Amino acid sequence: MKKQLPYFVAFFVVPVLVVMWWWGLFSGASVGVEQSTDYTYAYLEAQGPYSKLSSKQAEVHFELKKQGLESGAAITLVMSDPRNTSYKELMARTGFIIDQRDQVLPPLQVAKLPKQKVLVASVKAHPLFAYGKTYSAILDYCKAHDMKLKLPTVEIVEHSVLRVEMPLESDSAL
What is the 3-state secondary structure (H, E, C) of the chain? Predict the structure, then answer.
């Protein structure tokens, strides 16, 4: 058994740790207060488990391509807190950032988010880890500063980096 341990470590444990490192398991989310940019995005409304948002986002991508429009970074506005909302009643908007001059046709909808002061958490990691890391960082910040989570949060995914923005100003427009 002792002779096989180095082989087990070399050929199983080390490769698994390398893959987990590559996926961002050991990355921490950075947190800070910033001024967001203004976003114009095409989206569809989604209701139900947030784990199903990627299929709704694929619908938006398909519609944008069908309309001959370029899609930017993926964007999701999380409208419901999954900690106190039934998974069947969770609400979100999901889609892609677009050029503000684009003319988008139904079934897609278009909305704009103005510049605003936001709490930002970001991390470069696989989605399996990224969402937990960013929201954990935001909740820790809120707890440390005696704040509550404010919705909607804005999730932007670009180049394997998840950026979650929580509005700090009381009048966040949708």
Answer: CCCCHHHHHHHHHHHHHHHHHHCCCCCCCEEEEEECCCEEEEEEEEECCHHHHHHHHHHHHHHHHHCCCCCCCEEEEECCCCCCCCHHHCEEEEEEECCCCCCCCCCCEEEEECCCEEEEEEEECCHHHHHHHHHHHHHHHHHHCCCCCCCCEEEEEECCEEEEEEECCCCCCC
pLDDT tens by residue, 50-92: 989 999 999 999 999 999 999 999 999 999 999 999 989 999 9
Q: What is the pTM of this model?
A: 0.84
